[in-house]
Amino acid sequence: MPLIASKYGKGRVRVMRLTRDGDHHTPRELTLTVLMKGGFDAAWTEGDNRACVATDSVKNICNVVAARNLSLDKELFVRAIAATFLDTYPQIASVEIEGRETRWLRHAFGGEPHGHTFTLDGNGTGYVRLVADRDGATLQSGLRGFTFMKTTQSGWVDFVDDQYRTLPDTTDRIAATAMDATWTWSRAPADYTDANARVLDRLIAVFGTTYSHGVQDSMYRMGEAALAEIPEIAEISFAMPNKHYIPINLAPFGEDNPGTVFLPTDEPHGQIEATIGRG
């Protein structure tokens, strides 16, 4: 029976390129699918893999091209990946690359764009919850899945060092989360829309402009700031899963990685939750 069509490669190749110009950082994050067509039919019809490029190598090529092209727009970046495949492997007739961009918007404080604090484009959903009976009601507002990141000014050190630990201390890492936050009203503010916007402003300001010793540290201070800003809030609860950006080891390919190429991943993720109240 004839083999009508075939292609193969690697899906969900996630790569973050980060350019640093002093305190001004620019993140470029893509999730790629790279598929090859060419002289590979024998792998299907005869169990002969001699022409095949390992899909792990496909991932590695994407990372190496990323390290060598930190500032290219996504359109020129995928062209550079394709050129690497076509120049390296004569058995490849064509390469098909699709990329989904995670778009990070530079956040501004006081009208001034910040160097390393970003929010996700098309971000989050508003949340409201009411429990009412004949004696009264409890009203909560909040956000679900509001995603933000800073590319420096975050660390994680001095945690338990035992036989199960593999994670090294770091004083400079990317910190990102998709936050669920819920605040409980003790009384009505003058304007719910304005109050909710001020809560978010305070949360992002604390996260983005102060050094973080960990998500726990930032979360507590964010809650303190929201309660100080809005006296009508009784307490605020957070669930902030880590979105990890893991530096990719490019040494096997003769490339350095001075904090510029990362593997974005949120599975598995650290899950940090807390409620801060007025006491």
UniProtKB/TrEMBL annotation:
Gene3D superfamilies from the entry?
A: Urate Oxidase (3.10.270.10)
Q: Where is the signal peptide?
A: none
Q: Which InterPro entries match?
A: Uricase
Domain of life the protein comes from: Bacteria
Q: Which UniProt keywords apply?
A: Oxidoreductase, Purine metabolism
User: What top-tier enzyme class does this entry carry?
Assistant: oxidoreductase
Enzyme Commission number(s) from the entry: 1.7.3.3
Q: In which pathway does it act?
A: Purine metabolism; urate degradation; (S)-allantoin from urate: step 1/3
Q: Does the keyword Oxidoreductase apply?
A: yes
The record's catalysed reaction(s) read: urate + O2 + H2O = 5-hydroxyisourate + H2O2
The UniProt entry's sequence similarity note says: Belongs to the uricase family.
State the protein's purpose.
Answer: Catalyzes the oxidation of uric acid to 5-hydroxyisourate, which is further processed to form (S)-allantoin.
Q: What is the protein named?
A: Uricase
Q: Which organism is it from?
A: Methylorubrum suomiense
Which gene codes for it?
A: uox
